[in-house]
Amino acid sequence: VLYLFCAALTEHKILFLSSSYQRLTDACRALLALMFPLKYSFTYVPILPAQLLEVLSTPTPFIIGVHSIFQSETQELLDVVIADLDGGTVNVPECVHISLLPEPLLQQTREALSMVLDPELEVADLAFPPSTISASSLKMQDKEIRAVFLRLFAQLLQGYRWCLHIIRIHPEPVIRFHKVR
């Protein structure tokens, strides 16, 4: 999920494959939801019809879901990250370089996600674990996952104002992003 999240943030082409249309829709929508508060502004098609498979050759980034019976048509795509939802694999081609999160944030996010998804890991190494570990309900787990990614964005974007440059030579001040800082 973190590979797909980073691929979407860095504007790569992402293709979901599954034999279930519901799973395709859910996976595409979940990836967009994880990007909140950012909005994905490129091509987004949760279920691509067979007649439009040539769209996969477009040079622009996309998030597209395709039924797995068309998997043979996706084999020649060299610059597309393919997530097989039925097999549980993510295939990143050699020519595609996905920039992952900076190291302290990546490890913290992995740990936070594993604690939300598998809370038993937190007490697995204790000599005397507590007698009961309550798993969160699905609704609460959804909120916890959203909180992990919202915290990640807050950590990534903290201090952004330091990079803003105000130009006051115009009648009204103009704010520019100073890339060097």
Automatic annotation (TrEMBL):
The keyword rRNA-binding does not apply. GO terms for biological process: regulation of Rab protein signal transduction. One of its GO terms (molecular function) is guanyl-nucleotide exchange factor activity. Residues 1-181 form the UDENN domain. GO terms for cellular component: cytoplasmic vesicle. It comes from the Eukaryota. This is MTMR5 protein. It comes from Burhinus bistriatus. The gene is Sbf1_5.
